[in-house]
C-alpha cells in the first residue's frame, strides 16, 4: 500500500517536472521575440537587420530619431485620440445594444438579432469602399482621417454585442422583476440595479474598445490614403519599413516605435487582465 | 460483423438505441458517418421548406395588410379617411398633436424631396448616367475647361437613398393608418388616448427599447446596411479605376462578373482558377489556424491548471503577452525576423548552421514553408485567447468525474478523451465556429506577415498578382487598393465570402449539439 502510494507520488512529481519543463520552454519561445524587439530598439551601431541580438552599442538614438525625423508623435497622438473616443462611444453603443437584447422583450427582437448575425457574415472591408467615398465627400479622409476613423469604428460597433449580452444573460432576471414590482421603471432598473453589477463587463468592453484602434491596420491604411499626418501608429510604422531601402534605413527605429506602443498598452492590459479574463471566459462562450 | 450475428447492419435505416449499443466501435463509427451523410439532403430539404414557408408567410402578411388597410378606410370615420392623404391628421384631431405633427412633417419632407431631387436621381438609375464629361473651349479664360457630365457613383448613391426613403415612407404611412384604427378602437371602447406627455414617458418604460436602440441602429443602418446593399449593387456593374463614374461612367453589366468567376474555361490563368486556388487555401488555413490554436491552447490550459503546478498567474501572464501587444508590432517584427536577411537567418549563420548566403532559409519565399510559418506564428498569437477560454470551462468540469474514473483505473489519456474533450467540444462549439469564421477573415496575420506572398505566377494577371498565402480578404483588399481598383470584383468576392461563411454557419449550427437557450442562465 505504502509502496504504491510512494510510486504514485514519484509519478506525480515526474509529471509535474515534465510540465514545468514544457512551460519554461513555451515561456522562452513566447518572450524571445519581445526580448529581441527591446534589444534591437536600443541598438546604435547600425539601423539595418543584423544576425545578433544584444547591441554592441546601447543608446537612445532610435527613440530620439523617431521623434525628430518622423511624424511619430502625430501618429501616436492620432491613435490616442481615436482610442479614447472609440472606447467611450463604442462602450455606450455595445452596452445599450446588449442590455436591450438581453433584458427587454419586444416585438422583432429575434429578427433583429438574426439580421445582425447575417450582416456580420459580410466581410467588413467591402463597406469601406463606399464609406471612403462618402467620408472623402465630407472631407474626413487623408489629413482629417481621425474623425473619419472614429466614425467608422464606432457607428456600427453595436453589432459586437455578443460577449456583453452573454454576461447580461447571466445576471438573474428576478432582480429586474422584483424592482419592477416595487415600481421602478425600466430606466431605473438599468441605472440602479444592472449597472453596479456589471463592472467587469463594462471594464472589459472599455478595454477591448480602447485597444482596437491601436492594432487596426486595414481601415486606417485605406482612409489615411498615404497622408502622413492622418495615419495611426500601425500604418505610420509599417510605412517606415515598407520598402527594402527604407527597411535598411529605419529598421531599428521601427523597433523603438513598437516598444513605445507596446509598453503602455501591455501595462494597461496586464493591470486590467482580471476583467479581460472574466469577459472572455464568461461572455464569449455563452455568446 | 462477427458480433452482430444474424442480421446485417442496414446503413440506410435508423437503429434503435439498443441495437446501436451492440455495434462494435468500427461499426458504430461507420453508422454515425452514414447517418451524418444521410442527413445532408434532409438539411437542404429543411432549408428549402422553410424558405417556401417564409415566402408564403410573407404573401399572406401582405394580403392581410391590404385587407386591413381596406377595412380601415371603409369602416373608418372621416378623420381616419383624411389621414390616408394627410398623414397625422387623425392623430392631431384626436389630441395626439406631437405624434400627428411628426407624421405630417415627414410627409411634407418626403414630397419636397421627391420633387426636387429624388425623382431626378431615380430616372437615371436604370442607366447610371448617359452624359459624359466633356471639355469645351472657354473664350474668357482662353483654356479648355471641364464640363461635368453625369456621375455614376452619385446617381447610384442617391437613387439608393431615394429608394430607402420611399420604402420608409410607405412603412410610416402604414403605421399612420394603423394608428388611426387603434385610436378609433380605443375611443369606441370608452378608454382614453395617451396624451403626448404619457407618450414621452412610455419611452422610458414599456417603449424603452426604442429609446435605447435608436442611436445604435441608426449607426448600423448608415454604416453597415446601406454600404452592404450598395456593394451588392456594385457587383453587377463594371465600376473600377477605368470606370470611376466621374471621368468615365460605369454601368450595369448584369451577371457578367459572376459568370467570369464561375466560367470553366480551360487554362490556368482565369478568374475562376484564381478564385478556386485562393478559396481552397483560405479554408485550409482557417481549419488549421482554428484547431491548432484550440487544441494547443487547451493543452496549455490543462497543464497550467494541474494541481501542484505553482506560479499559475505568471505562466498565464507570459502567454497572454501576445494578446496584449498590438498585433502590428508583434507580427511585423516576426515578419522581419524571418526575412531572408533577418534575425533568424542571421543567428543560424552566426551559429554555423548556415555557411553562406545561398543556404539562407527563405521562410516567406517558398510556398509550403510560408504556409506552415503563418500557421505556426498564428499559434503564437492565438493560443493565449484559446487558453483563457479553456481555463474557465475546465474549472467547471465536475471534479468527481475525474476522481471516480481514477478509481476505476482510467489513465490520464483516457480521462482526457472520455471526459475533458467531449465536455469541451460540447461547450465551446459556438466559440469554434466564430473562431473559424474569424480566421477566414483574418486579415492582420496574413497581411502583416507575408503580404500574401510568395507570388503565384499562375495568378499574375487574373488574380491581380495574388500570392500563395493570400486569403480571400487580403485579395479583396489588394484588388481594392491596387492600381486597377477593381471595385466590382471586390464586391463579388465580398459576396462570395458571405456565401461561404453563411453556408458553413448553417451546416455547423445544424450538427452542433450545444445550441443553447439564452434563457438557461436566468
List keywords for this structure.
heterodimer; A: about 290 residues; mainly alpha; MetI-like fold; about 0% strand; B: about 525 residues; 19 helices; globular; disordered N terminus
3D structure, described in words:
The complex is a heterodimer of chains A (287) and B (522). With 287 residues, chain A is an all-alpha fold. In chain A, 76% of the residues lie in helices and 0% in strands. The longest helix of chain A is centred in the first third of the chain and has 40 residues, at 2-41. The mean pLDDT of chain A is 86. Chain B is mainly α. Chain B folds into 3 domains: 1-75; 90-254, no CATH class; 267-515, Orthogonal Bundle (MetI-like fold), CATH 1.10.3720. Chain B has helices at residues 17-22, 25-75, 78-83, 89-93, 97-124, 152-188, 196-202, 208-234, 256-262, 271-305, 312-324, 327-337, 343-350, 367-396, 399-407, 412-440, 443-449, 472-481, 487-511; strands spanning 134-138, 143-147. The longest helix of chain B has 51 residues, at 25-75.
Concise overview:
The complex is a heterodimer of chains A (287) and B (522). By secondary structure, chain A is mainly α.
Which quaternary structure do these chains form?
Answer: heterodimer
Low-pLDDT windows of residues of chain B = 1-7
CATH fold title of chain A = MetI-like fold
Strand order of the largest sheet of chain B: 1-2
> The biggest beta sheet of chain A, please?
none
Distance separating the two termini of chain B = 49 Å
The total strand number of chain A stands at 0
| Corresponding CATH superfamily of chain A | MetI-like
What overall geometry of chain A do the principal axes of the alpha carbons give? Answer: flat
Largest interface: A-B, 97 and 96 residues
Given helix and strand content, the structural type of chain A is: mainly alpha
Shape of chain B: globular
Tally of alpha and pi helices of chain B: 19
Write down the domain tally of chain B.
3
**Radius of gyration of chain A over alpha carbons?**
25 Å
Amino acid at each position: 500500500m505504502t509502496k504504491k502510494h510512494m510510486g504514485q507520488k514519484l509519478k506525480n512529481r515526474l509529471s509535474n517536472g515534465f510540465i514545468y519543463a514544457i512551460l519554461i520552454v513555451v515561456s522562452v519561445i513566447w518572450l524571445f521575440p519581445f526580448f529581441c524587439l527591446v534589444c534591437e530598439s536600443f541598438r546604435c551601431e547600425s539601423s539595418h537587420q543584423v544576425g545578433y541580438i544584444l547591441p554592441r552599442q546601447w543608446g537612445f538614438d532610435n527613440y530620439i530619431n523617431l521623434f525628430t525625423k518622423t511624424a511619430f508623435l502625430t501618429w501616436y497622438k492620432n491613435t490616442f485620440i481615436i482610442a479614447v473616443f472609440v472606447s467611450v462611444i463604442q462602450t455606450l453603443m455595445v452596452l445599450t445594444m446588449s442590455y436591450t437584447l438581453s433584458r427587454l422583450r419586444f416585438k422583432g427582437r429575434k429578427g433583429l438579432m438574426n439580421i445582425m448575425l447575417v450582416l456580420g457574415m459580410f466581410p467588413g472591408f467591402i463597406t469601406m469602399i463606399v464609406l471612403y467615398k462618402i467620408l472623402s465627400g465630407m472631407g474626413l479622409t487623408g489629413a482629417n482621417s481621425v474623425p473619419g476613423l472614429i466614425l467608422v469604428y464606432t457607428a456600427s460597433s453595436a453589432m459586437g454585442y455578443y460577449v456583453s449580452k452573454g454576461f447580461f444573460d447571466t445576471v438573474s432576471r428576478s432582480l429586474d422583476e422584483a424592482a419592477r414590482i416595487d415600481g421602478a421603471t425600466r430606466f431605473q432598473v438599468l441605472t440602479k440595479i444592472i449597472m453596479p453589477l456589471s463592472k467587469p463587463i463594462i471594464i472589459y468592453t472599455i478595454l477591448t474598445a480602447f485597444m482596437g484602434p491601436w492594432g487596426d491596420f486595414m481601415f486606417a491604411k485605406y482612409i489615411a490614403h498615404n497622408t502622413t499626418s492622418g495615419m495611426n501608429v500601425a500604418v505610420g510604422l509599417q510605412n517606415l519599413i515598407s520598402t527594402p531601402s527604407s527597411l535598411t534605413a529605419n529598421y531599428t527605429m521601427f523597433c523603438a516605435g513598437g516598444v513605445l506602443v507596446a509598453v503602455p498598452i501591455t501595462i494597461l492590459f496586464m493591470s486590467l487582465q482580471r476583467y479581460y479574463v472574466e469577459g472572455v471566459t464568461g461572455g464569449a462562450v455563452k455568446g | 460483423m462477427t458480433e452482430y450475428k444474424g442480421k446485417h447492419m442496414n446503413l440506410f435505416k435508423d437503429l434503435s438505441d439498443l441495437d446501436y449499443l451492440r455495434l462494435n466501435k468500427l461499426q458504430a463509427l461507420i453508422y454515425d458517418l452514414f447517418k451524418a451523410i444521410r442527413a445532408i439532403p434532409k438539411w437542404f430539404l429543411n432549408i428549402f421548406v422553410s424558405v417556401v414557408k417564409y415566402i408564403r408567410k410573407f404573401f399572406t402578411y401582405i394580403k392581410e395588410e391590404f385587407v386591413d388597410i381596406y377595412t380601415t378606410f371603409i369602416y373608418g370615420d372621416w378623420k381616419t379617411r383624411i389621414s390616408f392623404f394627410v398623414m397625422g391628421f387623425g392623430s392631431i384631431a384626436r389630441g395626439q398633436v406631437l405624434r400627428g405633427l411628426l407624421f405630417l412633417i415627414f410627409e411634407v419632407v418626403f414630397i419636397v424631396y421627391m420633387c426636387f431631387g429624388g425623382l431626378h436621381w431615380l430616372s437615371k438609375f436604370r442607366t447610371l448616367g448617359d452624359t459624359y464629361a466633356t471639355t469645351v473651349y472657354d473664350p474668357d479664360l482662353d483654356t479648355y475647361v471641364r464640363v461635368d457630365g453625369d456621375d455614376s457613383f452619385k446617381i447610384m448613391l442617391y437613387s439608393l437613398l431615394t429608394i430607402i426613403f420611399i420604402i420608409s415612407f410607405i412603412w410610416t404611412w402604414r403605421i399612420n393608418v394603423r394608428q388611426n384604427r387603434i385610436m378609433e378602437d380605443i375611443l369606441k371602447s370608452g378608454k382614453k388616448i395617451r396624451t403626448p406627455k404619457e407618450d414621452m414617458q412610455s419611452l422610458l418604460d414599456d417603449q424603452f427599447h426604442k429609446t435605447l436602440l435608436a442611436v445604435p441602429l441608426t449607426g448600423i443602418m448608415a454604416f453597415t446596411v446601406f454600404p452592404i446593399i450598395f456593394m451588392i449593387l456594385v457587383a453587377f456593374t463594371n465600376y473600377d479605376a477605368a470606370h470611376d463614374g466621374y471621368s468615365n461612367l460605369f454601368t450595369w453589366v448584369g451577371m457578367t462578373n459572376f459568370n467570369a468567376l464561375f466560367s470553366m474555361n480551360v487554362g490556368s490563368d482565369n478568374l475562376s482558377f484564381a478564385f478556386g486556388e485562393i478559396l481552397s487555401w483560405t479554408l485550409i488555413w482557417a481549419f488549421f489556424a482554428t484547431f491548432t490554436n484550440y487544441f494547443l491552447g487547451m493543452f496549455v490550459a490543462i497543464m497550467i491548471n494541474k494541481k501542484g503546478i505553482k506560479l499559475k498567474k505568471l505562466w498565464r501572464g507570459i502567454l497572454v503577452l501576445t494578446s496584449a501587444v498590438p498585433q502590428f508590432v508583434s507580427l511585423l517584427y516576426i515578419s522581419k525576423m524571418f526575412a531572408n536577411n533577418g534575425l533568424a537567418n542571421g543567428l543560424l549563420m552566426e551559429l554555423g548552421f548556415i555557411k553562406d548566403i545561398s543556404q539562407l532559409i527563405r521562410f516567406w519565399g517558398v510556398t509550403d514553408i510560408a504556409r506552415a510559418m503563418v500557421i505556426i506564428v498564428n499559434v503564437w498569437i492565438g493560443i493565449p485567447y484559446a487558453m483563457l477560454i479553456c481555463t474557465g470551462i475546465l474549472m467547471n468540469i465536475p471534479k468527481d468525474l475525474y476522481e471516480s474514473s481514477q478509481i476505476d483505473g482510467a489513465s490520464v489519456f483516457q480521462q482526457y478523451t472520455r471526459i475533458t474533450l467531449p465536455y469541451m467540444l460540447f461547450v465551446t462549439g459556438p466559440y469554434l465556429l466564430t473562431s473559424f469564421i474569424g480566421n477566414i477573415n483574418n486579415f492582420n496575420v496574413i497581411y502583416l506577415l507575408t503580404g500574401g506572398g510568395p507570388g503565384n505566377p499562375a495568378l499574375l494577371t487574373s488574380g491581380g498578382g495574388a500570392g500563395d498565402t493570400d486569403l480571400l480578404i487580403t485579395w479583396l483588399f489588394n484588388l481594392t487598393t491596387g492600381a486597377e481598383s477593381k471595385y466590382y470584383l471586390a464586391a463579388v468576392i465580398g459576396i462570395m465570402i458571405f456565401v461561404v461563411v453563411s453556408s458553413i454557419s448553417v451546416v455547423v449550427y445544424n450538427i452542433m449539439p450545444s445550441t443553447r437557450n439564452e434563457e438557461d442562465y436566468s
